[in-house]
Every structure is written in C-alpha cells, then in structure tokens.
Amino acid sequence: MFYLADTGINLRPPHDSTNGLASVHPGGIVVFTGISCGPVRVTVDARDAPPSTADTEAWDEVLEVSVHAPVGRMVVSGVFSDAPELPVLTTAGPGDYRVRLHARGRDTAIDLGVLEPVEDYLVIAWPAQLAPETSLKNTDSYGAGRRRARRRGPAPATGAEDRQAALRARLRARLQAEDDKFHQHQRDNG
Hints:
This protein is α+β, with helices and mostly antiparallel strands. About 20% of the residues lie in helices and about 30% in strands. The protein has helices at about 140-150, 160-190, and strands at about 1-5, 20-25, 30, 40-45, 60-70, 75-80, 95-105, 120-125, 135-140.
C-alpha cells in the first residue's frame, strides 16, 4: 500500500477495502497495491478543476473518492520509504477534494515482493465538495478479491493458508511497527 496523506496525518488501520482499491480516512487515503513490498510507479496530476473526461481504457481500476485535507498539504507517501518528489495534491490549500485513482498491473505479482515496478497509478485531485464514492472501472482480479473478501468475511483456511496468513500477519505487524517508529521519529525531530 501507499498513502495520500495530509501533513501530520497518520493513517492507521482498519483500512476498509470495500471498493478494492482505496480506503478513505480523515485527512488521507490508503491505496492498496497488489504487491506486498517494492516500488510502484505513481503519477500525480493536481488540478484546480475536474478533468473533462475520465480515461478508463488504459487502466484496470478507476475510482473517485472525496477526502478532507485539514492542513492542505496532501502528498504521496510510502509505508517505509521517504516521500517521493511528487507535487502536493491539494492545490487550493485546506478543504475538500475529489481524488480520481487509476491503477493497472496489480495482478502481475500479487502478494510478492518486487525490485522493479510492475504496477502503475495515476492520482488526479481537484478541489470539490464531498460526494459519494464512484467506481468508474473495476476489472483486476486483485481488486475483485478484496471486494469479495470484504463482502463475505474470512473463509476457512487450510494448513498452507494458515501458514501464509500467519506470515502475512507477522509482516503486517513488522510493517506497522516500522511505520510507528518512523512517525515517532518525525514527531520527535519535528
């Protein structure tokens, strides 16, 4: 996963994955990647007004959500890594924004670690009143699995699935501990 987070916002679980792509929180958005760790390509398009059309042809998933940015400095950030050098998404400062998320390649290496990017994301943001979530396209298997899992709840696990689930839980706990240490370090060094 990666974050779109306003200054000072810590996006803690739970992360609802009903739509299969993102979880909206006060001050930010969690975007779910198909890979478990490694780099992804993210392009940011911060605008003053909405795009005139929605490009759904080149993408597997396209979702529009609304978010409130209390500070008005929402940027892309990683779980473990420093924030990439991408523009601030919230061009009008503090307030409400509409964010259109595009994803492709999430089925390439599901739950695997990668050294080179296999997933692409486009994030378009503009000032707008809060509005209901809108799915414009959802065709990847990873997103379908997240949507299905959320509707059904957990399925009974086999022995191999139990081991994989335990490994994922340990990895998630380790990732959360590292994230907590990073944010504590940022607070301490303010």
